[in-house]
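Step 1: inspect the first sequence and its tokens.
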Amino acid sequence: MPLVHHAQREVTLKVVYYGVGLGGKTTNLETIHAQTRPDRRGKLVTVNTEAERTLFLDFLPLQLGKFRGYDVRLHLISVPGQIAQDSTRRMVLRNVDGVVLVIDSQADAIEGNNYGIRNLDYNLRQQGIDPDRIPMVVQYNKRDLQGVLDVEELGERLGVPEGIPELVASAMEGWGVFETVKSIVRVCMHQLGDPGACQDGRVECLLDEPRDRFYPSGPVSMIHALAPEHELDLEDLELVTG
């Protein structure tokens, strides 16, 4: 649920990066943090344990710019992929506004990817959230590696919902990462609409209908995640890098 503050003219979105362990969720946030101007982002906080560097979570606050006169802020969170940390994943999904499902494009990651998708579906339902209506994009990560599966094959084998925005990326090399952020923000802000017309506080941001009817069908390019009829006027909503 986006948090709308009329007094501060501010909208805060919570976006969770979900997926298989070591699939690139943390690397996405590290790249965003490294390539965003210091005055536009907060500190990247990683909660570590001895067993896994992201066994708990990563958190990155990010300031995007203005949308219809309101400052847009993101809280980006990556969650652990380990089975033992399921309670943490459920906790992080509370009041989530959008999900980036990070897919490891390597052939030997199919089983882990499948588990991640099923687990996301289950944990969203545990929070009372319809998985078919939560704003979501899929990022096929690690496209820089040799021998990765074709995006079309990955989508078919993993049962990616029809029409969901699909982006290709290499979080390690840094391409496709910001396009993914822009894509999920566009979906969330499209559904939110005019912040000035919303109530103060948390606002429901589920899609009006299941995503196979909300989104255009088929995979999309790295940048244009929505069909023209769903495009927002986001000229003043740009990630500030450099």
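Step 2: inspect the second sequence and its tokens, then contrast the two.
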Amino acid sequence: MKKEFRIAVIAAVITLSGCASDLDTTANVDPQTNQEQLQDKINAFKTEINDAEIALKAAEAKNLTWFATRQITDAKAALKEAKEYFLEYKSDSSKMNNSIGLFTSTTYLQATTESLDTFTDNLNKAKSIYVETVTVLEDALNYRKQLEKIDAKKHYPKTAQQLERQLKTLVDYVANDNKDRAIKSQPELVRKQHNLEVRTITKIYLADNQKELQRQKKAGVAQHAPKTLLHAEAKLKASETFIATEPRAISSITQKAEETRFELAHSQLIATAVQNLKAMPDKDYERHILSYEHILTDISAALDSGDVRDQPVLQQGKHVIAYIKANQESQNDLIAALKSQLAEAVMVQEATMLASTKAEEVKTAAVIEAPATEIVEAEAIAETPATETVKAEAIAESPATETVEAKAIAEPPATEIVKDKTAA
């Protein structure tokens, strides 16, 4: 049977190969297609393929492969096919209308077009899935970013990987048109993500304090300083509780972690002091008490608060505290008085500046009004030439009169001539 089947297949291939040759010949003889048109089509395909590669890189940069794995995979395959078809006729445009195989009439031109269309459809579908997913799974995706930010994978790799796989399952639900199932499964995933965030932040900021508490318990600190150790432990638990409710309040968490470290250091110091006191011989008790009294006396001397060694050591300490508080109150009163004086000075300065500003405004207004007066004066000056012209005309006419007067002076009267003759 197998041998007969092979013979039948060979016969079919021979028959179809002849048909394919006829199709190729027919396709090559296309009166409406010339060499220039074919080359333009090749250039257009080249540009389209380049654009597709750029679009694919942009999609991968946005991590669309993770959101729409199947669609991006299909898009890559379609683009690969288009490039393979294109290579067949890239250097010889006459092959563009040849059949791509023996058993099909599809040409390289058609196959390239179909592959590029398939690429575009899948890429657009991937983009659509991405937009829908980031909306439907917003809470889970935000937690994913937060876990990446605090590097939860470094501290709890197995748990982080498990949650990543669970989130990918929900993403695939959306990509496969099963949005309702993704929505239903999201709250449980978010709860787990929150727990991982809390564990990670606790480990980052409180791990050292937790280890120190366990060390002190094993070292027997509770035997020597039980109350102090309980206080430190309560501080640690309060910090853990705060992280559980506010894991992203890093500033407050840092402060609480430091406060816990301080209390644990204090409990260790108290335990050590008590332990040393228990091991101290009776003859050293006086020296031990005097060492504390000397410290208080030095403080009193530095403050000039007086010598109160005639009082119990505890009372000496209270005296120092009372003196410091009294000085602080006095200083606060002085500071308040200085602030009041400063405020008054500022008010006076502001009033002075305001008056100065108003004076400047008045001057500015006067300067603005001055040009109007100057314009009127200018107009009056412009009108004076007419008067001056009249005066000039009068002056121009005066020479005739002056000529007559000159002649009169040049020709003295006859009486004066007679007088001159008589005198002679």
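Step 3: confirm your contrast with the notes below.
Confidence is low (pLDDT under 50) at residues 1-31, 389-424. The chain has 15 helices and no strands.
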